[in-house]
Design goal:
- The protein has about 350 residues and is an alpha/beta fold.
- Helix content is about 25%, strand content about 25%.
- It has two domains: about 15-195 and about 315-340, Quinone Oxidoreductase, Chain A, domain 1 (Alpha-Beta Complex), CATH 3.90.180.10; about 215-305, Rossmann fold (3-Layer(aba) Sandwich).
- The chain has helices at about 55-65, 115, 180, 185-195, 200-210, 225-235, 250-255, 275-280, 295-305, 325-330, and strands at about 5, 15-25, 30-40, 45-55, 80-90, 100-105, 140, 150, 160-165, 170, 215-220, 240-245, 260-265, 285-290, 315-320, 340.
- Strands 4, 5, 6, 9, 10, 15 and 16 form a seven-stranded mixed β-sheet that branches.
- It is globular and about 65 Å long.
- Belongs to the zinc-containing alcohol dehydrogenase family. Class-IV subfamily.
């Protein structure tokens, strides 16, 4: 087998890469930094060079789990991250080598009933849980003895290179600070996204976002949940309520619920939706509600927001990859919200 060192300047596409991974060999024990072989991506897959990742309570919960069908070892945890596309498999057109991306465990195939629905964001094309890749149920990690290492939530970001399905990849702007972008993979976005898709559009406006009188609101998707958001935003006195939907019939429907401006992305010509929204709101909407359950639309919503989102406040610690077990200590001891784990170029920030 022609292996390539992940830190070398050799062309790596199409070849297995040997790199460092933080492997959990036994439940509850410290992760071990060791050499891992990462296979090249197959069809509809992307191999990503991880720039930084962070630790979530979900990682810790599964790390502690020592019994049951989903407690498998050895395993590479991690599901909040940002990285650069190293190579892509056959049929991948959405991203290419060099793109900055975030892997997301909430997949979007764009084809199944739930992905097409405005009321759900739980893709049902693939199994809800697997310790390997979703299409062939085979892992892409092995140790230096050739033994398989299990995946986690279709992401496994505690490794220098990982392979994910294209349905779990979102391209982002390379100008966005990667430590902030890392949080969009799960923690900062998941709560609101799930709340909206559970039919709590009104509650999201009143109790979560607490939209103020005179603020501007952008709503992506004018299904039942999106219309509920519009109605609540109107009741809260929002000065401008922008509805975004591909269905032109939603314009008149939306206005009945409080939408003041309507955008059909197909009619934006050469402009991005986020650019149109920023022009309408003098720099970006105060609140953006993603009511579709689409990873791609999530990025559009983020780019349409006014730059006042305090992502810095979620980052309480930063460590190097070699010190990844410190991140576990910080979280378990209640000292941390999110600890950014830098794969390289760590500057010693605390």
């Amino acid at each position: 087998m022609d292996y390539v060192n992940g830190n070398s300047s050799s062309k790596t596409a199409g070849k297995p890469i040997i790199c460092k991974g933080a492997v959990c060999r036994k439940a509850g024990e410290a992760l071990v930094i060791e050499d891992v072989v990462v296979a090249p991506p197959k069809a509809w897959e992307v191999r990503i060079k991880i720039l930084c990742t962070s630790l979530c309570h979900t990682d810790v919960s599964f790390w502690k789990m020592d019994s049951g069908p989903i407690a498998v070892h050895p395993r590479i945890f991690g599901h909040e991250a940002v990285g650069i596309v190293e190579s892509v498999g056959e049929y991948v057109e959405e991203v290419r080598e060099g793109d900055t991306v975030i892997p997301v465990f909430f997949r979007e195939c764009g084809e199944c009933r739930d992905c097409k629905s405005t009321k759900s964001n739980v893709c049902t094309k693939f199994a809800k849980y697997s310790s390997a890749m979703p299409r062939d149920e085979v892992g892409r990690f092995t140790d230096m003895k050739g033994e398989p290492i299990h995946h986690f939530l279709y992401v496994s970001s505690f490794v220098e290179y990982t392979v994910v399905d294209i349905t779990s990849v979102v391209k982002i702007s390379p100008q966005m600070p990667v430590d902030k972008a890392c949080l969009l993979s799960c923690g900062v976005t998941t709560a609101n996204k799930l709340l909206l898709c559970e039919g709590a559009g009104i509650g999201a406006v009143w109790k979560v976002a607490r939209v103020e009188e005179g603020s501007t609101v952008a709503i992506f998707g004018l299904g039942t949940v999106g219309l509920a958001v519009a109605q609540a935003a109107k009741q809260q006195g929002a000065s401008k309520i922008i509805g975004i939907d591909l269905n032109p019939e939603k314009e008149d429907i939306g206005k009945k619920f409080g939408v003041t401006e309507f955008i059909n992305p197909k009619s934006c010509e050469d402009k991005k939706v986020s650019q149109v929204i920023k022009e309408l709101t003098d720099g970006g909407a105060d609140y953006c509600f993603e009511c579709i359950g689409s990873a791609t639309v999530m990025q559009d919503a983020f780019e349409s927001s006014r730059e006042e989102l305090l992502l810095d406040g979620f980052i309480t610690h930063e460590v190097s990859f070699r010190d990844i077990n410190k991140a576990f200590e910080y979280l378990i001891n209640g000292q941390s919200l999110r600890c950014i784990i830098w794969m390289d170029n760590f500057m010693g920030r605390q």
